[in-house]
Design a protein that fits this description.
The complex is a heterodimer of chains A (115) and B (113). With 115 residues, chain A is mainly beta. Chain A has no helices and 12 strands. In chain A, the strands form 3 sheets. In chain A, strands 2, 5, 6, 10, 11 and 12 form a 6-stranded mixed sheet that branches. In chain A, strands 3-9-8-7 form a 4-stranded antiparallel sheet, with no helix packed on it. A two-stranded antiparallel ribbon of chain A has the order 1-4. Chain B is an all-beta fold. Chain B has no helices and 11 strands. In chain B, the strands form 2 sheets. In chain B, strands 2, 4, 5, 6, 9, 10 and 11 form a 7-stranded mixed sheet that branches. In chain B, strands 1-3-8-7 form a 4-stranded antiparallel sheet, with no helix packed on it. The chains are: A mainly beta (115), B mainly beta (113).
């Protein structure tokens, strides 16, 4: 079946540090890949996506590249801010049968950025 | 309108109460979803509606009863819940295709006492 594995957290960084959150996946066929962010007390927001191999998704300074050869979709940001403190979820979507674009989530990575 | 609106934001209910959670979207999305999220865990899929018909029930106990009155509205009726059902309940919608992400609401924080 489909699955997503994220690096264990929590991740604690100082402001302006470089961020990488690793994400690898297992899926049949060609899934679409997503990063969602959840700020404290809120729902999930779509951060970025990539729908085919070698696509790069980007938003708000965050980037992730769909690597089919390594089945990975690592999230990166060159300089984090305190406001980036949140939980980050990697997810894949594979439409087959009655999946209706059903999302499979990773376990989530808690990011805390200190001033 | 690019939002999914959920009401109420917070709900406290007793184990014998009946309550409903509401979700609304006006993006023309044809798929709508209910998720349950416990603290520090990923969301767990409960139900999927596609074109107003229930298409997926992830073996959810019958004390949770979903309803989709029309293409813009999704309800979750709650009855005889247990304290372990306390969680954040998230509604989401999508175009239903593989390439589109979901739009999530901000959730209802449910506490069962």
């Amino acid at each position: 079946g489909n699955s997503v594995t994220q690096m264990e957290g929590p991740v604690t960084l100082s402001e302006e540090a470089f961020l990488t959150i690793n994400c690898t996946y297992t899926a049949t066929g060609y899934p679409s890949l997503f990063w969602y962010v959840q700020y404290p007390g809120e729902g999930l927001q779509l951060l970025l996506k990539a729908t085919k191999a070698d696509d790069k998704g980007s938003n708000k300074g965050f980037e992730a590249t769909y690597r089919k050869e390594t089945t990975s979709f690592h999230l990166e940001k060159g300089s984090v801010q305190v406001s980036d403190s949140a939980v980050y979820f990697c997810a894949l979507s594979y439409a087959g049968g009655t999946s209706y674009g059903k999302l499979t989530f990773g376990q989530g990575t808690i990011l805390t950025v200190h001033p | 309108d690019t939002e999914v609106t959920q009401t109420p934001k917070h709900l406290v209910m007793g184990m014998t109460n009946k309550k409903s959670l509401k979700c609304e979207q006006h993006m023309g999305h044809r798929a709508m979803y209910w998720y349950k999220q416990k603290a520090k865990k990923p969301p767990e899929l409960m139900f999927v509606y596609s074109y107003e018909k229930l298409s997926i029930n992830e073996s959810v106990p019958s004390r949770f009863s979903p309803e989709c009155p029309n293409s813009s509205l999704l309800n979750l009726h709650l009855h005889a819940l247990q304290p372990e059902d306390s969680a954040l309940y998230l509604c989401a919608s999508s175009l239903g295709s593989r390439d589109e992400g979901y739009t999530f609401g901000s959730g209802t924080r449910l506490t069962v006492v």
